[in-house]
Amino acid sequence: MALSSNALRILFLVVLVCTAHAGKPAPKEKSEKKEGAAEASGPGGSFDISKLGGSGDGKTDSTKAFMEAWTSACGKEGAQKILIPKGDYLVGPLNLSGPCKGDVSIQLDGNLLGTTDLAQYKANWIEIIKVDNLVISGAGKLDGQGPKVWENNKCNKKYDCKILPNSLVLDFCNNATVTGITLLNAKFFHMNIFQCKGVTVKDVTVTAPGDSPNTDGIHMGDSSDVTITGTTIGVGDDCISIGPGTTGVNVTDVTCGPGHGISIGSLGRYKDEKDVTDINVKDCTLKKTTNGVRIKSYEDAASVLTASKIHYENIQMDDVANPIIIDMNYCPNKICTAKGASKVTVKDVTFKNITGTSSTPEAVSLLCSEKIPCTGVTMDSVKVEYKGTNNKTMAVCNNAKGSVTGGLKELACL
Ligand SMILES: *[C@@H]1O[C@H](CO)[C@@H](O)[C@H](O)[C@H]1NC(C)=O
Ligand SMILES: *[C@@H]1O[C@H](CO)[C@@H](O)[C@H](O)[C@H]1NC(C)=O
Ligand SMILES: *[C@@H]1O[C@H](CO)[C@@H](O)[C@H](O)[C@H]1NC(C)=O
Ligand SMILES: *[C@@H]1O[C@H](CO)[C@@H](O)[C@H](O)[C@H]1NC(C)=O
Ligand SMILES: *[C@@H]1O[C@H](CO)[C@@H](O)[C@H](O)[C@H]1NC(C)=O
């Protein structure tokens, strides 16, 4: 659904205010063998949660062990490692706050399971705040256990709904790397990147059913220098969504589907949103998604902002409903009050070598606003064909200006 990052920022601040008054210690729980963190720390600075009272049986709450490992690792200088060995570790919300004294890495060999007791969450499941140089790696899974709680999501009925916990959240983190892991069945978004600079997501798998509610793959907002590469995402909402205030993003070698595609936006929903610029999406495949590459902004945008220097290249569409779409009249749940009042400028957008098939006749839809037309749109070798036999391939361009080189002539509507 791509909530604006402003909504997430407000939520984040509310949580900070609430928790400031809720400083009571976590209930003390028994642990068979309580070893000090110092003992669990090896020469390389390694904190193994199974040696800190955590249990990989999938049932015992290992939150305390994880938090103990975090507090110790974050409080030490130099390279520190938190190890989640093979096994299933059930944990509640993990508030991993920095700044840390050294550089922390989390080695995920086993799996973390997010508790389904929603009362335990203030906002997100694994929330990393103000931590620089963090590395999360391994072949393990972050399992949100969404199927047990998705029925509590009422966001399709109520726009300002209570949102379920996002799985992995990076707030104000510089130079973070997430690699190798799988994010499975998040309760809400799988990953949310907010006000970070320098984030790399590499060789990651994100998986949830195509009909799961608001399970966006990777959302980002107010961030810069983000790389997503070698990653496979199949979810119930946007595979990747790039929110306001984001600059310098490279998405390469990503396969998306099922899902709602690779989106920029939604833009303009809230006041004071910042520009989106320098976005490159290259060498990606979209399979049976509702959208391919999309830019969406609210019809009655509350912010004046610009989305520019957006480049899509070598994108393979496989049975995609709306392969190329700019929608400046976006208005889910009919909440817009003014028609055609967009304040969002979309310019300098290139679609180069976009090939494959569309499941609807309109392979290209550039629906820009009358007030602020899209400018500098380039279509170079765009060849996406309608798969069906009852109609022909077509393109719709409203208020879009630019040029076409090569490609299917049916799509040359600019
Ligand atoms: C997380 O922990 C930090 C410091 O330990 C605290 O200031 C903050 O309020 C906590 N946030 C949440 C969401 O619990
Ligand atoms: C960023 O993280 C990488 C990988 O952990 C590290 O090698 C590099 O030194 C970090 N860069 C900065 C500027 O801290
Ligand atoms: C993205 O790719 C471009 C062109 O290859 C490069 O100049 C830029 O530094 C890259 N940005 C990031 C965040 O990696
Ligand atoms: C066009 O993109 C496809 C992948 O979608 C790639 O296989 C092909 O080599 C590209 N063609 C050119 C001319 O770059
Ligand atoms: C072909 O598709 C267009 C656009 O979706 C639609 O308006 C039109 O009615 C279709 N024509 C036929 C013959 O189905």
From TrEMBL:
Keyword Secreted attributed: yes
Stretch forming the signal peptide: 1-22
PROSITE patterns for this protein: POLYGALACTURONASE (PS00502)
Main location: secreted
Comp. bias regions, Basic and acidic residues: 26-37
Keyword Zinc-finger listed: no
Cell compartment(s), UniProt: Secreted, Cell wall
Protein keywords: Cell wall, Cell wall biogenesis/degradation, Disulfide bond, Glycoprotein, Glycosidase, Hydrolase, Repeat, Secreted, Signal
Region (Disordered): 25-56
Source organism superkingdom: Eukaryota
Class of this enzyme: hydrolase
Biological processes per GO annotation: carbohydrate metabolic process; cell wall organization
Enzyme Commission (EC) number: 3.2.1.67
Catalytic activity: [(1->4)-alpha-D-galacturonosyl](n) + H2O = alpha-D-galacturonate + [(1->4)-alpha-D-galacturonosyl](n-1)
A GO term, aspect molecular function: galacturan 1,4-alpha-galacturonidase activity
Active site: 260
Family from the record: Belongs to the glycosyl hydrolase 28 family.
Function: May function in depolymerizing pectin during pollen development, germination, and tube growth. Acts as an exo-polygalacturonase.
Name recorded for this polypeptide: Exopolygalacturonase
Organism per entry: Eleusine coracana subsp. coracana
